[in-house]
Q: What sequence folds into this?
C-alpha cells in the first residue's frame, strides 16, 4: 500500500499548460505562417504548432507535424526534420501507440544520421532516450537499458548534464517498477549529485523526492528525513502546486512511518501538519486526488492516536464516496486503513472482513508480510469466535442459536448456489455473444479479402492488357509503319515526279513520321519501358520530365532514400499509375502552373506526396464524388494496404499524402 500511495504521489509532478495560454500561442503561430517565411522557419513554426496542439487536439497536432516534415524533407533540412519526427512521437506516446512511436523515431534517426549540424549528436541522444522509454512501455527491458546507457554516453560527451539527470531518473523508475529499490536508490543518488552541481531548484526537488521514495521503500525513514529537510530548503511553499503536494504527501507518510518505529508524538504531529497542508492545497486547486489522499492519511492519523471511532466514521464516509465515483485504487487504500483500524481496536472479525475486501483489489498482498498479517487476523478472529461459542454453550439458548445458525448456513448455500447458477448462465450467454461477434468479424474479414482479391485481379488484368497492347502497337503496327516509310523512301529515288507531286509525297512522309511518334507515345504511356527495366524512381523521373518539357505543367520530382530501392513490380506499377492519375487530374481540373512529386523510403515505409498550386476544392466533395479518377486512386491504394490523406481548400491548392509498407 505504501508503494501504491507513493507512486501516485510522484504522478503529481506533471502540470499541464493552461488551455487559454495554448490558444494564444496557436494564434501567434498562425499569424507567423501568413508571413513570407524561409523553409526552415516555416518547418519549425509548423512543428511548434504541433507542440501546442498536443494538449488540445491530437489529430491537429499530427497534421501539423506531418506538414512540418513535408517542408523539411522538401528543403533538405536534415536536422530540423529529425527534430520534427522526434516531436511527432510524443502525441503517439500519449495514445500508447508505441509501435508507431518506434517507427517515427527510426525516421528521426534516418535524417539525423545525414545531418552535419554541430547540434546533431545531442538530438540523437534525445531520440535514443525516447526510444528506450518506448521499449520500456512495450516490455522490452533489455533494449530499454541498452538505449538508456547509449543516451547517457551521448549526453555526457555533449556535457548536457540535465539530460543525464533525466536519464538516470528514468532508469530509477524502471528499477522501482521491478521493486529493486537499492538499485533505484543508487541511480537517484547519481541524479542528485548532478542536480547539486546544476543548482536548479526543480531538479533538486525532483531528485530529493525520488531519493526519499527509494529510502521509504527500503524502510530507512531516518535517512529519508535528512533528504526531506533538504527538500524543504530547496522549495518555499509558493508557486508550484504539484511540488508542494508531493512534498507534503511524501513528508507526511515518512513521519507517520517514523512514529511507527519510535512512537514519538511529535512525529505524528508533523505528519498530521503535512497532510492538513496538503488538504488545504487540494481544496485550493480543486485536486480530487490530493483531497482524498490527505483525508485517508488524516483518518490513519486518528487510528494511530487511538481515536478509533472517529477514524472508522471518516473511512466509512470516504468508502461510500469512492465506490460511488468508481475509484478502485483509493477504495483499496481506504479498506486497508479500515482493516488496520479494526485490528488495532480489537475488532478482529470486522478487521478480517475488511481485509478480505482489501485483498480482492490489491495483488501485492501476496507478499510474505501481508500473508502473515492476514494469518494473524484470521487466528485472532477464530479465537474470538471460539470464546463466544464457549460462552453460548453455557446458556439455555445454545440449541436454539445452533438451529438458527444451521438454517442460515442452508440459506447461504441456497443463495450462493442461485448466484453461482446465475453467474454460469451469464458467462455462457456472454460466450455465445462473443462467438457471434467473432463469426461476424470473420465474415467481414472474408468479404474484405474477397473485395481485395477482386481488385487485385482487375488491376493485374488491366496491366496485362496494357502491356499486350503496348507490345502489339510497338512490334506490330510500329513495324508496319516503319516498313511503309522505308518502302516509300526507296520508291522516291526511282520515281520522276512533278514539283507538286514531290511536295505532296514529302508531306505524306512527314505525316507517317508523326504517326510513328504518336504510336510510340501511346505505347509508352500504356506501359513505360523504364518502369520495367529500371524501376519506379527512374520511371517517375522520366514521366515528370516529359510533362515538364511539354510545357503543360511545371513538375518538380524529388526522391529520398529511393537510390537502389527494390520494389516488387506490382507495387511499382500501382504507385506509378496513382502518380500518373494525380498529375493528369491536376492538368485537367486544377488550373495549376506548378506541381511537386516527392517519393521517400525510410526502412519499409514508402511515402508519396503530390502537391500543386491550383484552384483546390472542398475535401467534402470527395465523399460524394463519382469520378473514375479518384475511385481508381482509392482502389489502388486500398489494394496496396496503404493510407492516404487529401488536404485541399478552394484557392489554396491540393496536397495528397500516401503511406504504405513494402
A:
Amino acid at each position: 500500500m505504501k508503494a501504491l500511495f507513493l507512486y501516485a504521489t510522484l504522478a503529481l509532478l506533471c502540470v499541464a499548460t493552461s488551455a487559454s495560454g495554448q490558444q494564444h500561442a496557436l494564434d501567434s503561430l498562425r499569424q507567423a505562417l501568413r508571413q513570407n517565411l524561409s523553409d526552415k522557419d516555416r518547418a519549425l513554426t509548423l512543428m511548434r504548432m504541433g507542440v501546442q496542439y498536443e494538449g488540445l487536439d491530437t489529430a491537429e497536432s499530427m497534421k501539423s507535424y506531418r506538414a512540418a516534415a513535408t517542408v523539411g524533407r522538401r528543403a533538405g533540412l536534415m536536422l530540423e526534420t529529425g527534430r520534427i519526427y522526434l516531436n511527432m512521437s510524443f502525441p503517439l506516446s500519449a495514445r500508447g501507440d508505441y509501435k508507431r512511436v518506434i517507427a517515427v523515431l527510426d525516421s528521426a534517426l534516418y535524417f539525423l544520421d545525414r545531418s552535419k549540424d554541430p547540434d546533431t549528436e545531442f538530438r540523437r541522444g534525445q531520440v535514443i532516450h525516447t526510444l528506450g522509454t518506448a521499449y520500456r512501455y512495450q516490455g522490452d527491458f533489455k533494449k530499454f537499458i541498452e538505449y538508456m546507457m547509449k543516451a547517457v554516453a551521448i549526453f555526457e560527451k555533449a556535457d548536457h548534464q540535465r539530460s543525464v539527470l533525466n536519464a538516470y531518473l528514468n532508469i530509477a523508475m524502471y528499477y522501482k517498477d521491478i521493486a529493486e529499490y537499492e538499485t533505484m536508490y543508487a541511480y537517484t543518488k547519481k541524479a542528485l549529485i548532478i542536480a547539486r552541481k546544476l543548482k536548479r531548484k526543480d531538479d533538486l526537488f525532483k531528485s530529493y523526492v525520488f531519493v526519499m521514495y527509494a529510502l521509504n521503500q527500503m524502510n530507512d525513514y531516518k535517512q529519508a528525513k535528512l533528504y526531506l529537510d533538504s527538500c524543504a530548503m530547496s522549495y518555499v511553499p509558493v508557486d508550484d502546486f504539484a511540488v508542494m503536494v508531493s512534498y507534503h504527501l511524501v513528508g507526511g507518510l515518512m513521519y507517520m512511518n517514523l512514529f511507527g518505529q519510535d512512537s514519538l508524538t511529535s512525529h505524528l504531529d508533523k505528519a498530521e501538519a503535512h497532510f492538513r497542508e496538503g488538504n488545504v492545497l487540494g481544496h485550493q486547486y480543486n485536486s480530487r486526488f490530493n483531497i482524498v489522499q490527505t483525508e485517508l492519511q488524516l483518518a490513519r492519523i486518528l487510528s494511530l492516536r487511538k481515536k478509533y471511532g472517529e477514524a472508522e466514521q471518516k473511512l466509512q464516509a470516504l468508502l461510500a464516496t469512492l465506490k460511488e465515483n468508481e475509484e478502485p485504487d483509493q477504495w483499496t487504500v481506504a479498506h486497508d486503513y479500515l482493516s488496520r483500524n479494526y485490528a488495532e481496536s480489537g475488532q478482529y472479525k470486522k478487521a478480517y472482513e475488511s481485509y478480505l475486501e482489501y485483498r480482492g483489489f490489491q495483488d501485492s498482498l501476496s507478499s510474505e508480510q501481508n500473508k502473515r498479517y492476514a494469518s494473524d487476523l484470521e487466528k485472532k478472529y477464530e479465537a474470538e469466535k471460539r470464546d463466544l461459542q464457549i460462552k453460548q454453550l453455557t446458556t439455555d439458548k445454545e440449541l436454539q442459536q445452533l438451529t438458527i445458525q444451521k438454517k442460515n448456513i442452508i440459506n447461504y448455500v441456497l443463495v450462493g448456489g442461485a448466484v453461482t447458477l446465475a453467474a454460469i448462465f451469464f458467462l455462457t450467454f456472454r460466450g455465445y455473444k462473443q462467438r457471434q461477434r467473432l463469426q461476424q468479424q470473420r465474415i467481414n474479414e472474408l468479404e474484405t479479402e474477397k473485395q481485395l482479391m477482386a481488385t487485385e485481379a482487375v488491376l493485374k488484368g488491366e496491366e496485362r492488357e496494357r502491356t499486350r497492347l503496348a507490345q502489339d502497337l510497338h512490334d506490330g503496327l510500329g513495324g508496319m509503319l516503319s516498313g511503309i516509310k522505308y518502302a516509300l523512301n526507296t520508291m522516291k529515288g526511282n520515281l520522276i515526279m512533278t514539283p507538286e507531286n514531290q511536295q505532296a509525297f514529302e508531306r505524306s512522309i512527314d505525316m507517317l513520321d508523326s504517326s510513328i511518334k504518336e504510336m510510340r507515345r501511346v505505347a509508352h504511356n500504356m506501359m513505360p519501358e523504364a518502369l520495367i527495366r529500371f524501376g519506379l524512381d527512374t520511371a517517375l523521373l522520366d514521366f515528370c520530365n516529359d510533362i515538364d518539357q511539354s510545357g503543360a505543367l511545371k513538375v518538380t520530382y524529388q526522391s529520398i532514400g529511393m537510390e537502389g530501392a527494390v520494389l516488387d513490380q506490382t507495387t511499382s506499377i500501382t504507385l506509378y499509375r496513382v502518380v500518373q492519375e494525380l498529375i493528369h487530374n491536376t492538368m485537367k481540373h486544377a488550373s495549376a502552373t506548378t506541381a511537386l512529386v516527392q517519393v521517400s523510403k525510410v526502412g519499409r515505409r514508402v511515402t508519396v506526396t503530390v502537391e500543386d498550386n491550383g484552384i483546390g476544392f472542398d475535401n467534402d466533395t470527395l465523399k460524394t464524388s463519382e469520378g473514375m479518377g479518384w475511385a481508381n486512386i482509392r482502389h489502388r491504394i486500398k489494394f496496396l494496404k496503404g493510407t492516404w490523406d487529401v488536404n485541399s481548400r478552394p484557392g489554396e491548392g491540393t496536397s495528397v499524402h500516401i503511406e504504405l509498407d513494402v
